[in-house]
Write a structure and sequence with these properties.
single chain, 72 residues, mainly alpha, two-stranded antiparallel ribbon, 2 helices, 2 strands, elongated
Amino acid sequence: MADNSEPMKTDLTVTAETLREGLRMQRIAAAAGEKAQQENRRLSIPNWYSINGHIVSDIEIAQLATQRAASS
């Protein structure tokens, strides 16, 4: 078993290359998510979100917006 008596050294610095790679991966993931949402809309499949701890679909959000616009 490892000797854990000494505190673990942590270096919280991020290199520019690591930051660039992380941002690149984030852009790829965001684009993939957007593409999947667009495909779901094309196929009339709801996308689901958590808003303030409540699970709602984009169809429900659109219906609420329509109801609010009609009542004002």
